[in-house]
Amino acid sequence: AALAMAKDKRTPAQQQTVVGYFVRNVAKQSTVERTRLAAANKELAALKPVSVPIMRDLDPKHRRVTKVQLRGNWQALGDEVSEATPAVFNPLPKDAPRNRLTMARWLVSRDNPLTARVAVNRLWESIFGTGIVRSSEEFGSQGDLPFHPELLDWLAAELMDSGWDIKHMLKLMLTSAAYQQSTKTTPELNERDPDNRLLARGPRFRPTGELLRDQALAVSGLLSAKMYGAPVRPMTPNLGLTTAFGRSNDWTVSTGEDGHRRSLYTEVRRNSPYASFATFDAGNREVCMIRRSRTNTPLQAFVTLNDPVFIETNQAMARRLVAEAKATPERLALLFKLCLSRAPNAHETSSLTQLYTETLTTYRADLADATKMATDPLGPAPKDADIAELAAWTTIANVVMNLDEFLMRR
Asked: Are residues 214 and 121 in the same domain?
């Protein structure tokens, strides 16, 4: 009866009866599909709504009132505090809104040269080893005075005039006569200026652990130029330690290109820092470190001699030498050019040739040891390669890439 009636004349109950009959007897939808749909609807109904926090500036009339806490006591409140800069600095523009954009513009304003001075001092420190102001983390009354104040002011003005172009400033410093000087010194100069504050010679200091790793990867041809993305995990010894919550401190090593990306992308774990970097004075990120200390210890030599990452670069260098040069003198010349930017002298050529000959003889007598030296951890050697030869050149590369000349900036 309900089906015979016009649609607009049916009651809600009659309409529901017609729809139910159609679904049960006429629709071609299978029982399996109806079951899946019912299950999906049930899952959808069980989903909880997700809230996403969004930050925005409050309207001025809704902003909270902030007062001085006398002696740090939140129950003893003093005068109300408004948005402003410390009185010892230049004030914010009178007509500008009191927000973060105004603060950012004030920081880089020419009326506030402190920002530019701090920035160029840190750039100078990264190039010369010591900033014009030695205490790069403290420009206040408790810090050191600038050794060359006129130079600091000139560099700060140049940074602002260049539109805060960091690349321009680094190029300017690297092409300066002060940087391109020889690092050779004399006893008289060492006695008068042991820290080279007078810039009478070129800078000489050990780079950071990150730069040493990247340098070894670069000269061996392994360094990846890939940018962005998730952090990576270079090879590091597994210690079998766990955190307080039972999670292992060991990590799964990144494979392929990711294992050779720049140190900038290395994963940071505060409770288990990357051992190679920690040995070279890298911070553990538990506290902010403005200026990194610089030490020289025997452990650092153990790292560059035995760390899997550095051994891998030695093996890659050996394969590169064998592939790109034929005779031993040519390979030594290429090795020195890549690592030291110069040719070997007669004494170095003679000593390394003798070491190569002795090492090659040793590895030809023990191919199992040669295979391990040439392939672990880099991987299988190229087809038809002379394993003993690769192992011997790995040893030579290890020697040259551990020279003071390779590990020190000079």
From this structure: no
Residues 170 and 218 placed together within one structural domain of the fold: no
What residue has token string 């790069």?
136
Q: What is the DSSP string of 87-152?
A: TTSPPPPTTS-SSHHHHHHHHT-TT-THHHHHHHHHHHHHHHSS-SSS-TT--STTSPPPSSHHHH
Distance CA 310, CA 312 (A): 5
pLDDT digits 0-9 by tens, 337-366: 999 999 999 999 999 999 999 999 999 999
- Left, alpha or beta for 78 (phi > 0: left; psi -120 to 50: alpha)? beta
Phi, psi of 261 (to 5 degrees): -75, 165
Tell me whether residue 8 is exposed, middle or buried, using C-beta atoms within 10 angstroms of its C-beta: 0 to 12, 13 to 18, 19 or more: exposed
pTM above the 0.85 mark? Answer: no
Range of the domain at 180: 113-192
Q: Which helix (H) or strand (E) holds 400?
A: helix 387-400
pLDDT tens readout for residues 89-106: 888 888 888 888 999 999
> Lowest-pLDDT range, 52-61, 357-366, 400-409?
52-61
